[in-house]
Amino acid sequence: MLDHDNLARCALRRSEAPVAKRTTSPFLQFIAINSVGKTFAARTGSSISVLDCVDLTIAENEFVSFVGRSGCGKTTLLNIIAGLEDATQGQITIAGRPVTGPGQGQGVVFQQHALFPWLTAVDNVAFGFRKSGLNKTDRRQKAMDLLTLVGLEAAASKYPREMSGGMQQRVSIARALALDPQILLMDEPFGALDELTRIELQHELLRIWEAQRKTVVFVTHSINEALMLSDRIVLLAPNPGRIKRVFDVDLPRPRSRTEPRFNALYEEIWDELST
Amino acid sequence: MMRRFPQIAPPLIALAILLVAWELGVRYGFLKPYQFPPVSRIASGFVELSTIGFPTGVSIWSHTLTTLVRVLLGYVGALALAIPLGVVIGSFQVLDKLTAPLVVFCRSVATLSLLPLVIVWFGAGELTKVFLIGYGCFWVMLSNVIAGVRYVDPVLVRAARTFGLHGGELFRRVVLPAALPRIFAGARMALGVGFMVIVGAEMIGTIEGLGALIMEARTFYRSEITIIGMLIIGVIGFAISAGLTALERLLLPWAGNLDAVRR
Amino acid sequence: MSEILKTLRSNDLALGLIGAVAAVGVWEICARTGVVDPTLFPSPSLAISAAAQRLTAETLADNLMWSLFRVFSGFILGALAGAAIGIAAGWYRGFGTIVRPLIELLRPIPPLAWIPLAIIWFGLGEPSKLFIIFLGAFFPVVTAAYQGMRSIDPVLLRAAQTLGLDGLPLLLWVAVPATAPDLATGVRIGWGLSFGVLVAAELIAADRGLGYMIINERNTGGSVGVIIVGILLIGALNLLTDAAIGAAIKRWVGRWHGA
């Protein structure tokens, strides 16, 4: 759907307040978010704009974080990329194909673990292979491999309620990897975990990301977490949800919180966030 | 208003279609009027019931009143016994453990299975019906009162202790109010049980009351009167549960949704 | 002495047993000493011996089997229909908006009030009893299934969608299992109601079954002891089957659903 009014309005907005250089090379446009907006009809008859004129391109194998206050639309934007919600304006393409629904190569990890409580860890991961055409034993075997990847082969026969929050999120990541997605979309996946587990899982995620060469879009409210993980940090602002600024994090990995440049970037993002 | 209309319309239309199909089905001989009395006949039956009455002289209102009085007597009696007894049993762990299997068993005894025994005791009169309702209500109420008092959140009790409350005052100010939602849930369940029991109890050995009305009407091939009786029973059942929910909100505005209470 | 008391206090089962034995003992003593009239309320020992005299094992087993057969078949039909309709009403919005108000309209009518109409529709034979028991199971299960469907955590459905499921597979593999705990509660309530309804139906219109056995005993002026034994037997049967269903639910649902 090409809405010319929307495109023109967003182009004007871009020229007034440039947020980042736009990559035009098709090789670097793995995920292309073009003038995406989302409005809800409110009860009173007016409409609420959750997202407005979001333009962003994400390259293949890139690790991008969305940071912002609650209500800035970061989860909504992630859901639109996932195909779980529709944009009311604009369009998103993945490798040139418009997103029309879930299951187009997007693996999703949710804020709460979203594991099926009636399935054991290995069966939860095997559930991810349901559409793969594999038989039951092969599905289980592949699921075990993924559980091993996230370091949980010993907990394979545990039910979600018998696992700690950290274990639950590990299983969620394994399940999201089941269909070998090109993109991993993560919505505050470590937000509910304690500090130690959270740091542990951040390292784990980087390891998996580097080993499997995925494109990761990561929503978080923690600037620290975004700085530890990402190649780029997209700062969103509320009312209406829009991109305020994009930061390049060109620090070598593994990163350290004590590094001066880490802290300088932290301050910079914090300033932008609080004004 | 415009937004709510489409939600109410489809079921109303479905109901109307059903009733018209029913009426036409009888007219054109697909359904037997005795088995499926059409709406028109139910309406004229209602007029007859509220004026002449069935059996003659006993109007629908007097049937309803008889049933309600029986339920109320048994219910109030059961509550008057069960609440103090339940509070005592619930307050002492040993008493609760001693009586638990007994209470569970007595609650499992199907109330109406007592009917033959109670008839031997009290004859087929009013007392039998009131006793049966009382029995059904009593055990439901008792087990809920015990559970309510017994399983008060220990954090509340500990918090109250830090303010120096103990003994009778702790019980009156903290334990009892905390148990009230559960007690109320029990009272609601008990009324439902009482209402269920009365319909069955009235089907044997009496000609007054709604249960008797629908059974008698059947033996005289007056199925439209049976259906009217059922509808009135349904309306009363609905009014009772709606009334109790409203009362609960009024009396316990701080309590959460009691449908979430596990039995 | 105090040691014994202490171990007793911590042992729920032993305490409960003592309570039950004491209750039976008090009953026995009251009847023996004439505090209550033994012809109206015989002592447990008298009741059992009277029952042993008047009931052959064969008639007892026959009545028992009939009651169990009726309650099981009616309950299973009612629970299956209730689950199917409740789940469909929760999943398919159009079906739900039409069916649910009709169910809500009929739900306040207790199953027992359907007895006369059931006889009008199906005659005095087995189908009318089946129908009443069916209703006893149907309404609690249909309500629980619908409410269970409505309270599914949407994130579970979304997670399954991201794994490529939609339509019927999404319903069968995700929505239905997610409803299982609510469904189990409904099934248990439905079983209790079916059982109560069974006894009433057998009292009012039947020529065999445990309910018939006790009302027949009273109508033919038989022994109160037999009636009492019958009542206790029905109670024990209810308790046992309910415990069995509870244990089965715990086995299937309890291991993954904290209960």
TrEMBL record, chain A:
It comes from the Bacteria. CDD domains: ABC_NrtD_SsuB_transporters (cd03293). The keyword Nucleotide-binding applies. The keyword Nucleotide-binding applies. Keywords: ATP-binding, Nucleotide-binding, Transport. Pfam families: ABC_tran. Residues 31-263 form the ABC transporter domain. PROSITE patterns: ABC_TRANSPORTER_1 (PS00211), ABC_TRANSPORTER_2 (PS50893). SMART domains: AAA. GO terms for molecular function: ATP binding. InterPro entries: AAA+_ATPase (IPR003593), ABC_transporter-like_ATP-bd (IPR003439), ABC_transporter-like_CS (IPR017871), ABC_transporter_ATP-bind (IPR050166), P-loop_NTPase (IPR027417). Belongs to the ABC transporter superfamily. This is ABC transporter ATP-binding protein.
From TrEMBL, chain B:
SUPFAM superfamilies: MetI-like (SSF161098). Pfam families: BPD_transp_1. InterPro entries: MetI-like, MetI-like_sf. It is found in: Cell membrane. Residues 64-244 form the ABC transmembrane type-1 domain. The chain crosses the membrane at residues 12-30, 72-95, 102-124, 130-149, 193-215, 227-247. The keyword Cell membrane applies. It is a multi-pass membrane protein. It comes from the Bacteria. Its main location: membrane. Keywords: Cell membrane, Membrane, Transmembrane, Transmembrane helix, Transport. PANTHER family: ABC TRANSPORTER PERMEASE PROTEIN MJ0413-RELATED (PTHR30151:SF0), ALKANE SULFONATE ABC TRANSPORTER-RELATED, MEMBRANE SUBUNIT (PTHR30151). Belongs to the binding-protein-dependent transport system permease family. This is ABC transporter permease. It comes from Aminobacter carboxidus.
Automatic annotation (TrEMBL), chain C:
It comes from the Bacteria. InterPro entries: MetI-like, MetI-like_sf. It is found in: Cell membrane. Pfam families: BPD_transp_1. It is a multi-pass membrane protein. Keywords: Cell membrane, Membrane, Transmembrane, Transmembrane helix, Transport. Belongs to the binding-protein-dependent transport system permease family. This is ABC transporter permease. It comes from Aminobacter carboxidus.
